[in-house]
Specification:
heterodimer, A: alpha+beta, Sufe protein. Chain: A, 6 helices, 3 strands, B: Aspartate Aminotransferase, domain 1, 2 domains
Chain lengths: ~150, ~425
């Protein structure tokens, strides 16, 4: 297995110039996720407007895979509906757990398909999922806190 | 002897001949490597360059064969089977204990307790040494401890109300003994000092004897985590001046699943049991039990018998090469690696940059690259290193970094492998466009 399959150009581009990075106001939820085996960390905020993801902002330390994946994720989910964002998380997760067996849908995952190669390196799958898991967690928290406000 | 429990083989009964290093034969790495079948492996088109021995060492054929021979020809439980195989297994197990005792310069075999690893040995102490501690008492460790010599003491402090304090490190990665002296770190409230002999991250060899003397002057007990020391350096527990010493078998050519706790016999004898169960007892009644003397008091249940046999074979192998020769080889190699790695732009070494009082682990950062990316690129060229915090997160925090890459050498490592590492690191920098 060639290391170039893992480090696709798209991944390296996102790693070198991360999209949407930095923490911004306003936000309804902030989460901090850690990968204890390697110590990768991400602090991530979501700003929801009704049912829409208006912003995802983040800061973190980690390997190129985790940083690039978070960058790609923010590109994908900002502007989408919450449910579409969570569906994308599900589709990305399925691709990452496929050990490279499935052909990802480029129309849906866009730059995210570059991580299909990462799925063949089991030790790195968790890196690619860090930002996505943080996004899902933050959205769930933001949604539930909004429901509490209403009730 | 079947049935005559507990049987212990005296240190003096260990055959001297096989323990004497043969001085005339020069240290021949190629010859040594031929004893390790794993070095015939390749990673893709590259030969395996194994630089992760501080994590676990590779095994010479004789160790694996000793374990195989035990299981295939002598297998039985120890200390309780009234038959020939039981006697053979018991003799092998207790013989291993005597061999380890001899290797450490222990006064008697009963000072060697077999555990499952160094962590269990340290946990055993953190439980049995602390029942009478309370608020006002202090336990001292250092900021460079492996989590296994930190977390058990944190738990003990939480349990008892004792205060956990620690030695800091200097910017160069040496134990900051001057700052410790200035702040009275070790004092009349100190009950336990537990410290690494050799840092698994920095490679620093700590002045354990001096610390032990200081601790003893205040009546404290001294525990040494020698997991990175016993594989690399000649260790004489009597000369060292410590009270207890813990290490693990798998970092010194032995199998996983066995660790060693050495303790001064009078101190071991005063400790309560740790785990309860079979073979650690004297008499058991429903109303209460009395306990076996050390070492068996601390070896509840069926012990790691085959692992002890493997560890004994490892001790024989190390003794034949001679620990002085092994330490010499590693010193030379580490000096060479410090020089070569020091010349790579963007590479910054954690810990001492000269080979004085330094073990064969070198941790470093490379530009702002994450160690997992460095490790992945090196792995693509057959080079195995470790990336992360190496179970020493507080130390990384102390140096203001999240993680590092570590290359660690052993008795079978060659200069050519150090060169391969340096080439691999240059390749890694180019791949990620260093200097961007």
């Amino acid at each position: 297995m060639k290391v170039e399959e893992l480090y696709q150009e798209i991944i390296l581009d996102h790693y070198r110039a991360k999209h949407h990075s930095g923490l911004r106001e306003p936000y309804e939820a902030e989460v901090h996720h850690v990968n204890p085996t390697c110590g990768d960390e991400v602090t991530l905020r979501v700003h929801l407007d009704g049912n829409q993801v208006r912003d995802v902002s983040y800061t973190g330390l980690g390997c190129s895979i985790s940083q690039a994946s978070t960058s790609v994720m923010s590109d994908l989910v900002i502007g989408k509906s919450v449910s579409d964002g969570l569906d994308l998380h599900e589709e990305f997760l399925t691709m990452m757990q496929s050990r490279g067996e499935i052909d990802p849908d480029e129309d849906r995952l866009e730059d995210g398909i570059a991580f299909a190669g990462v799925a063949r390196f089991p030790a790195r799958v968790k890196c690619a999922l860090l930002g996505w898991s943080a996004f899902k967690d933050a959205v769930v928290r933001a949604s539930s806190s909004k429901q509490e406000e209403r009730s | 002897m079947p049935g005559e429990y507990p049987s212990v083989v005296a240190v003096e009964e260990v055959d001297d001949a096989e323990l004497q290093p043969v001085e005339e034969i020069p240290y021949d790495v190629d010859h040594i490597r031929a004893d390790f079948p794993i070095f015939a492996r390749t990673v893709g088109d590259f030969p395996l360059v194994y630089l992760d021995s501080a994590n676990t060492s590779q095994k010479p054929r004789v160790v694996v064969e000793a374990i195989e021979d035990h299981y295939l020809n002598h297998n039985a439980n120890v200390a309780r089977a009234m038959h020939m195989l039981g006697a053979e297994a018991t003799e092998a197990f207790e013989g291993a204990r005597a061999k380890v005792a001899r290797f450490l310069g222990a006064r008697r075999s009963e000072e060697v307790v077999f555990t499952k690893n160094a962590s269990e040995a340290l946990n055993l102490l953190a439980y049995t040494l602390t029942p009478r501690l309370g608020p006002g008492d202090e336990i001292v460790v250092s900021v460079m401890e492996h989590h296994s010599n930190l977390v058990p003491w944190q738990l003990a402090a939480e349990r008892t109300g004792a205060r956990l304090r620690w030695f800091d490190v200097t910017p160069e990665g040496r134990l900051d003994v001057d700052a410790a002296a200035a702040q009275g770190l070790v004092n009349e409230r100190t009950r336990i000092v537990s410290i690494a002999y050799v840092s698994n991250v920095l490679g620093t060899v700590n002045p354990v004897s001096a610390i032990a003397a200081q601790a003893h002057a205040h009546g404290a007990v001294v525990v040494v985590d020698a997991s990175q020391a016993v594989p690399q350096l000649p260790v004489d527990v009597q000369a060292l001046g410590a009270d207890f010493l813990a290490f693990t078998g798998h970092k010194m050519l032995g199998p996983t699943g066995i660790g060693v706790l050495w303790g001064r016999y009078d101190l071991l004898e005063a400790l309560p049991p740790f785990l309860g169960g079979g073979e650690m007892i004297e008499t058991v009644r429903m109303t209460g039990s009395t306990f076996a003397p050390p070492p068996h008091r601390f070896e509840a249940g069926t012990p790691p018998i085959a692992q002890a046999v493997g560890l004994a074979a490892a001790v024989d192998y190390l003794s034949e090469l001679g620990m002085d020769a092994i330490a010499g080889h590693e010193q030379e190699l580490t000096g060479y690696a410090l020089e070569v790695l020091g010349g790579i732009p963007g590479l910054s070494i954690l810990g001492p940059r000269e080979r004085v009082a330094r073990g064969a682990a070198i941790s470093f950062t490379l530009d702002d690259l994450h160690p997992h990316d460095v490790g992945q690129l090196l792995d693509s060229r057959g080079i195995a290193v470790r990336g992360g915090h190496h179970c020493a997160r507080p130390l990384h925090e102390r140096f203001g970094i999240q993680s590092s890459t570590r290359a660690s050498f052993y008795l079978y490592t060659t200069k050519a492998e150090v060169d391969a590492l340096a080439d691999g690191l240059e390749y890694t920098r180019r791949f990620f466009g260093a200097g961007r």
